[in-house]
Amino acid sequence: MHDWSVFRLLFLGLAGFAFVLPVGAQSVTPVTDSMMLFSDPAYGVSFRFPAGWSFARIAPDTRGNAPDLSIAYKEDRSVFTGLRGLVANETLHGVPSWPKTVFSGVEFAYDARPTDSAESCRQLAEEDWKTESGSVPLNGVVFWRGTARNADVSTELDEEIYAAFVPASGACLRFDLAVATSHLVGKRFPRELMSKEKARIQASLDAILHSVQIASPAPSTGQ
Prior knowledge:
Elements: H1 3-18, E1 27-32, E2 35-40, E3 45-50, E4 54-56, E5 83-89, E6 103-114, H2 118-126, E7 131-138, E8 141-151, E9 155-166, E10 171-182, H3 195-209, E11 213-214
Antiparallel strand pairs: 1-2, 2-3, 3-11, 4-5, 5-6, 6-10, 7-8, 8-9, 9-10
């Protein structure tokens, strides 16, 4: 079993609790047979994701088992994770997974941290990405966008990170679109992804990102 699968087993275990434990004011509800709606009234955030994907929230005091995302808690930082929603899947229709290809999974993570200004939010965002690629308007909100890469011996995680300061909630909101690949040899040598497969993976994450809606937070956050 490769490293990504080991983490995924842990992740799926956490996901089972996400639907039954009260976590702030967040909720996940079905909107169609194939689509789920995540809502976080505390920060006025909602987005849709495929019903087949797993959902979890990483506890704020999580340390050793936090996902290896740039926006998540790192051992060398003094802050805990602000992740409030994390959806993921190891498979996508039309994209063979490891060990047939190097594709190991996708993740869409949402993080919210109280900040006092747009400049503070930008500084927080800049800690996460290696390369900045300008600003992007999404559903009435302008986000800064950057990219990052995390890698170990066998797994690489390529990330697109979007960040925006929302005055109504006094928070820096960040969304992390991550693609995991593994070159670990299994029953065969996994092949590299073709252009059409990469496009399909990116489209699955972009669809979630473009469904993000940001409204005024609820009067009582219950954070």
